[in-house]
Amino acid sequence: MGASVFYLVAFLSIFFALMVIFAKNPVHSVLYLIVTFFTFTVHYILLNAQFLAVVNFIVYMGAIMVLFLFVLMLLNLNKENEPLKSGLVKILGIVAGCCLVVTLVGSLKATAISNPLVLQNADLGLVKNLGKELFGPFMLPFELSSILLLTAMVGAVLLTKKEKV
Amino acid sequence: MDISFVIEKFILVVILFGLSLVIAMYSTYAERKVAAFLQDRLGPDRAGPAGMFQPLADGLKMFMKEEIIPTDSNKWLFMVGPGLAMLTACIGTAVIPWGSPINVGGRIIPLQVTDINVGVLYIFGVVSLSVYGVMIGGWASNNKYSLLSAIRAASQNISYEVAMGLSIIALLLVTNTLSLKEIVENQHGWHWNVLYQPLGFILFIVCAFAETNRAPFDLPECETELIGGYHTEYSSMKLGFYLFAEYINMFVSSAVMSTLYFGGYNYPGMDWVLIYTGPVIAPLIGTAVLFAKIFAFIFFFMWVRWTIPRFRYDQLMHLGWKILMPLAIANVIITGLVIAIVEKF
Fold first, then answer.
1. Most buried by CB count within 10 Å: which residue of A104, B28, B144, B242?
2. Is a pLDDT exceeding 60 seen at residue A37?
3. B163 touches chain A (CB under 8 A)
4. Helix H segments across B95-130?
5. Residue B57 has pLDDT above 90, yes or no
6. Torsion of CA A131, A132, A134, A135, to 10 degrees
């Protein structure tokens, strides 16, 4: 049962991810992206990573995507005022896309050879265990990433205050 | 997974859903009566004794009205908006413990749909999602006023989520758990969290007002500036859903506040009652107490609405970012320091 649920959700993830690209209207793209993130949340739940699931839910679906939608609604983009892309840009896009496909195929082939990763502790994703891991063996990277976030925050505040300094 | 478990949960979900709708329905009546009381009027008194059937009449009116979908609107999203608002309003009740488990002939039935160990975060996630109904509906209406309202709702929601999240972090430092069931059990016997987190509670309730779009934070539906706000173009039951969702949100946030800060179903003399009335009646009394707390909060919501005038938009942002957020951070630091000192000595 677990496997069939996984395949269904994986199919939905890829389907909605493709819809993000194919949707003509940018606001529709963002809405499809929100659904894609929701399927990721389901993936985390299937892996028993409840904390990660709910954080993905709050941060990506609840905060970041609201801001995306906010900006797109303010810009009010539509087909009429979208700038036409030149032929050169299109060719460059095709080349970049092909490079990405080659990289992905290469990396997928590499994972097929290696042994499947077996999770030793199925409850690793619960809050308590995750917290013990983060504040135990991974203390330094965790604190460093918090400093990184703080730096970004200070930078953002500074940018908005530019004219007053 | 046995079949009785599924039936048990199904019945609980149906009861909760029905209860949310009925409470939301009668909240509209209560709101009009409270407003009338505060303004020295009578309020609705024609339909039934003391106007008791007014919500039924209003509901019927909503269903019977003509359904209008604006020509230049995005039809699909225009319909999704109110549905999403209702959905996000209703799913919050799933993790709230509505009473201590009932013991019927040796079988223990928990009065909670599910006890996930990240219950507090689940509630927070549902709250952060609730803005989509307003945003999508406002944008799909293809109306400048609706769009402005949607954008206001989004920025207000994001701003107050920050302070709300920080006030929850301070609470979690005290409770040491994210499971709502354990949070309620820890508050047994006058250990109500509001006594340990008074500042956190005040921050939380202010943010709850902002997140439910209630006055004085109802900027997205500010009539003087935006006509009807995000539901300007809506008619019939779609409008009804938006108005309904607001009242369900109010009910759920009242339940969350009672659970997190006011002991949930705990009340003084609980153990004594349990001994004298048995394991079936006592939990139900606890549930009744929880609902009394919820109704008190709903009354408070209405009281504030008819007492305090609406904020100006810049005042709203100033309050959210420059007053509530620093206070919430200070609250986290002070709570952490006190806990560290208490544990040391």
1. B242
2. yes
3. no
4. 119-129
5. no
6. 110
Q: What counts of helices (H) and strands (E) characterise chain A?
A: 7, 0
CB B309 within 8 A of CB B178: no
Q: How sure is the predictor about A125, in pLDDT bands with cuts at 50, 70 and 90? A: low
The 10s digit of each residue's pLDDT in B73-86 is: 788 888 888 888 88
Cis peptide bond prior to B216, omega within 30° of 0: yes
The three-point CA angle B226-B229-B230 to 5° equals 145
DSSP for B215-248, please give it: TTS-GGG-HHHHTTGGGTT--HHHHHHHHHHHHH
Is residue A66 within 8 Å of B154, Cβ to Cβ?
A: yes
DSSP A84: P
Alpha carbons B264 and B293: distance in angstroms, whole number? 8
Task: Give the other-Cβ count within 10 Å of B213's Cβ.
Answer: 26
The 3-state DSSP class for residue B39 equals: coil
Nearest to B132 by CA among A46, A25, A38: A38
Residue B160: per-residue pLDDT = 87
Candidates A30, A32, A58, partner chain B, best to mutate (most B CBs within 10 A): A58
CA distances from B129 to A157, B123, B229, B281, B332 (A): 26, 10, 19, 37, 25
Instruction: For residue A45, give the chain B residue with the closest CA.
Output: B116
Beta carbons of B20 and B93 less than 8 angstroms apart: yes
Q: How far apart are CA B85 and CA B241, in angstroms?
A: 7
Place of tokens 């079988």: B107
Q: Are B154 and B86 in contact (CB under 8 A)?
A: no
Angle (nearest 5°) at CA B234 between B229 and B238: 120
The answer to whether B142 and A151 have CB atoms below 8 angstroms apart is: no
H or E segment to which residue B102 belongs: strand B102-104
Q: Which residues of A touch B (CB under 8 A)?
A: 27, 31, 34, 50-51, 54-55, 57-58, 61-63, 66-67, 69-70, 73-74, 76, 126-128
Specify the long-range contacts of residues A129-136, CB closer than 8 Å, at least 24 apart. A130/A51, A130/A52
